[in-house]
Amino acid sequence: MNFILPPNITGHGTAKGNTPPQTDWDRFEQGAASWAMVQSDWDLQAVVRHVPGNFWAVQFSAASTGVRFEIRCNAHYPLIAGWEDGQYVNRPELEAHFASYFTLLPVAFLNTTLDSENEASNLAVSRLLHNEFAQFPYRNPHTLADIIFHQWA
Question: Domain boundaries in the chain?
């Protein structure tokens, strides 16, 4: 997947007084509710806004196994991903519930390593703002997911 992260995806890119764009929370909540309605084994546990951070998550638990699953959404752009037991997972069935507004990011893209020798990561971060790059030495992101769904203060 060739995808270029939009400027200010971290929420740290604007000058003081300017606010970054905001994802439509109601649409995210509707998509999560739609997905949950067709899942017989998943129980809604919580809806969380990660502060500090730049993402929201709707958290579920599997009734039969106790496995935890989240649908994560970037707070500034309509980008979503599945997160299960501490790692990103591909859940293609999410697309049907979010496709009209959101982009479901695949695990291979999210796990792309940030490395000046990695052409894919260089392209993906090419539109980030100076203030966002200035956070890297302090935040030490290793993958694109660390930028898209972060918990930086």
Answer: 25-148
**What are the backbone dihedrals phi and psi of residue 107, each rounded to the nearest 5 degrees, phi first?**
-60, -40
The contacts of residue 19 (CB under 8 Å, 6+ apart) are none
Nearest CA to 20 among 77, 62, 68? 77
For residue 18, pLDDT over 80 is answered with no
Global confidence as pTM: 0.91
Q: Which two tokens stand for residue 103?
A: 């982009």
Q: For the beta carbon of residue 110, count every other beta carbon within 10 angstroms.
A: 24
Contacts of 71 (CB under 8 A, 6+ apart): 31, 32, 35, 57, 58, 60, 80, 81, 82, 83, 94
Tens digit of each residue's pLDDT (9 = 90 or more) over 69-120 = 999 999 999 999 999 989 999 999 999 999 889 999 999 999 999 998 989 9
